[in-house]
Amino acid sequence: MKKLVSLLLALCMVFSMAAVASAEGDLKKVTISILGNYDERNHAEDRSDCPQYMLDDYEYIRHELLPGYEIEIEWRLYDDRQQQLPLLMAANDVPDIVIADGTTYMEYIDTGYFLEDLTPLLEEYGQNILQNVEQRSLDLCTLEGSGLVAIPSENFYYKFRTIIRTDWVEKLGFEVKKVYTLSEIKEIWTAMATQDPDGNGVNDTYGLGTRYNGGDWTQSFMPILGAFGGMIDQIYIQDGVAVPFNFSDNFRAALSWLNEIYEAGAMDPEIFVLNYDQAKIKAAKGLAGTFSGWWNVMGNILDAGLLELQPEARLDFIYITSDDGKTEGNKDNGTIWKTAMISNECEYPEAAIAIINYMHTYEGQEHHNAAILDENGQFTYEEGEEQNEYTRLYETINWDKFAGSTDEDVKYAAGWRKSPFDNLFNNMVLRQASQNRMQVKYMPEGGDDPAVYTTKEWQTEYRNYLNYIGDMMHDNPDNMGVYTSDFYGLPVTQEALDYQAGLDTLTTDWVVELVTGKKDVNDDAVWAAYLQEAVDKGAQQVLDSYLAEYNELNGTSHTAFQLVK
Amino acid sequence: MLQKSQKVGPRSWATTKKLMKRYWIFYLFFLPVAVYYIVFSYIPMPGIQIAFKDYSFKKGIWGSPWTSNYGLKHFIRFLSNGEMKRVFGNTLTLTILGQILGFPCPIILALMLNEMKAEKYKKFIQTISYLPHFVSFVVIYAIMYNFFSLDGFVNGIRVALGMERYMYLGEKHLYKWFYIGSGIWSGVGWSSIIYLAQLSRTSPELYEAADIDGATRMQKMWHVTLPCLRPLISYQLVMSMGGILSVGLTKTMVMMNDMVRSVAETTSYYVYQQGLLKMNQYSYSAAVGLFEGVLSLILVIITNKLAKKLDEDGGIW
């Protein structure tokens, strides 16, 4: 009897194991490799410093993202993935998912390493992508004869802002407001340079400083160029003619205006010289009344020492418009933030698409930045629901002194951007929407500390800005306070490869000479010499080549602006 | 000892084998060096062909098609798009001036140190002059910025003297002097070591003989010290000519700003810009790099010949 029972039990065990084995056998075990950046400031290379709750999120991806699949992610992390990619391609070792910046995917497609016509895969496994990515972005990633070749992730329109010292504006007797015309700002900047607003008895301040993190005049001058109706390196179709802003009358007028500012001593004379660190130090010293910067630099500048040196310092965003108030704006680098390409060696492209598809959800976007999911794979923002660790930290964080000194701040800072997905699959609308609803909900009241006051204003401003931009993106995409080149997204032409590097240097060289007054921008002969030199260096050929592409793609017959008539 | 009139015939393989067997330990020491150069310098050499091809990742080096114009498309592109004149002109300006001004400096420093009698002071000077060699150029530029920026030390003196501030770091005509001057400052001490080592081997009897002949210090330096250095100087000259067209990329990137960009961009920066920052420009940047390499080789050959003409023992081969 004992033998019989033992036999039955043994049979049961065998059947059970067989059943389990059979169930496991149905699961496809898939490994998807993703090319990413390793940033030692953010995380350890082996992810050993990831908080546990973040690592747990992978369980969701592993088991539930795609029914019937067990997906493992293999990160291929490098200091600079963009530079590493050619080496991987040369070694025939391309990861399954490759992310390219902007529209640079076009440079890779010809290599033959990536899948083309991704639309059928997206229709089956990527519905979130199709629903949350603008059609125009998908169109930009669609090539004739190849179909959709890359999956775009979208960016907000340009987030460079113009920042002013409102305490100086007030002290100098001007009205503190949001929008200034060119004439008004010229008067303010001149006063900032001549009337010692910091009160140290020396005329060592100026109106327009270099961009906060320096090194690029195109960004330092962005609000001025915007007020003159265009942006550097962009081309606009005007009355059937393709006009490059770099060679337009508007650009010349902007340079003339900037020259007046320079001559009046109202611009930092080292605006063309400062590198990244030097510009930051200078901004923190509080020598500039206005400068450009990324939307979130105000808090950095205040914390970098400005408040210690000048406790009364206040910063705010402003807009600079033409005197008639009609033109204003910043540069838009295009709606494509990055694109994901799928290697044609990828054995399970559906799993790769499923990962990217997941990133196009609120949850995915949170994971994208800081990996937040509770044990049920759910988000718990609403009151009454159980909170996960991340949400709890969000609640207790001192948002006014972001990543500041409290224990909770430190914990939060430890988790911030530890996600390996960091910045790879942005969907800005989803991401900001999810961040906004948390920030709005958990924003504590500000105090009397000027730093708190100012940074709180910045956050409010940014929320408004995002909402404003978000609304525009969805409701009114053709009417934006940003400039977009009409040639955005066109494949790079051979002429551009041949001549663009030289032309960039030429433009910079001339802008420096014209703004600093070494050459007279108002002299027609000088301007003609600039145009002639540009033509000699291939500017007309580059324009013609892009226009030919544009006309062919759009079925138009626009003509090119003639630099030299 | 081998006399000059004697001819050295080719060594037979049997003799070579015998020598290798006898001196196997030296060959063993040499082995890692040989492996290093074979692996990293000779095996990749066939890759040069991508300069004559339209390189495709998928097809690889050997499978990529040859370019039009008998494989010279990329060379023609570089020579005809105007970039060659600019970046090559900048490179030549910086390197030739750098050679003319920089090459004699360590020799002069070595001669001066050699003449110093106070040992402690001499060692102190030597140590001070070596130090900048160990400092990153980023730090050196930060020092330069603090000296020459509008708020810097030099402008502080100008203001104190009632003069206007001057934008030293934004002046095109000054860029080359800052570039070369900083290079000399950071490298002169270190480069002088090899000359000092050679001078320490100079026989004291030569100086004693010169003393007996009533030579002054300058005469001794000219007729004894310098001739002792001559083979080393010619060797160093030939070696340095090999790298004359290679301008340090890091230094260029650190020192360059928008005001001096047009005179600061060199071939190495151009190759970096085209080859690494842009995709599918490998063939083009390889062509530019090869062009530079061939010119460097020609310069080395010419310098070697000149060195041999000036001095029988001069040159490398």
Structure description:
The complex is a heterodimer of chains A (565) and B (317). Chain A is of the alpha/beta class. Chain A has helices spanning 2-26, 52-64, 81-90, 105-109, 119-125, 127-132, 135-140, 166-171, 182-194, 217-220, 222-227, 249-263, 276-285, 297-309, 349-359, 362-369, 389-396, 407-415, 428-442, 450-475, 494-515, 524-536, 539-554; strands at 28-37, 69-78, 97-101, 142-143, 147-148, 151-154, 160-165, 179-181, 206-208, 235-238, 241-244, 288-294, 315-321, 330-331, 336-342, 482-483, 559-560. In chain A, the strands form 6 sheets. A 5-stranded mixed β-sheet of chain A has the order 8-13-7-12-9. Chain A has a 3-stranded antiparallel β-sheet with strand order 3-15-6. In chain A, strand 10 (235-238) and strand 11 form a beta hairpin. In chain A, helix 13 (276-285) packs across helix 14 (297-309). The radius of gyration of chain A is 27 Å and the shape is globular. Chain A starts with a helix and ends in a 5-residue tail after the last strand. Chain B is mainly alpha-helical and 317 residues long. Chain B is built from 16 helices and no strands. The mean pLDDT of chain B is 86. Chain B has helices at residues 13-22, 24-42, 60-63, 73-80, 83-102, 104-115, 119-130, 137-148, 153-160, 172-200, 204-212, 217-242, 249-255, 261-264, 267-275, 282-310. The chains are: A alpha/beta (565), B mainly alpha (317).
The number of strands of chain B is 0
In terms of quaternary structure, what is this?
heterodimer
Q: Tell me what portion of residues of chain A adopts beta-strand conformation.
A: 5-15%
User: Class by helix and strand content of chain B?
Assistant: mainly alpha
**H/E topology pattern of chain B:** HHHHHHHHHHHHHHHH
Radius of gyration of chain B: 25 Å
- Characterize the main sheet of chain A: 5 strands, mixed
Q: Which pair has the most extensive contact?
A: A-B, 36 and 32 residues
Q: What is the SS-derived class of chain A?
A: alpha/beta
- Overall pLDDT score of chain B: 86
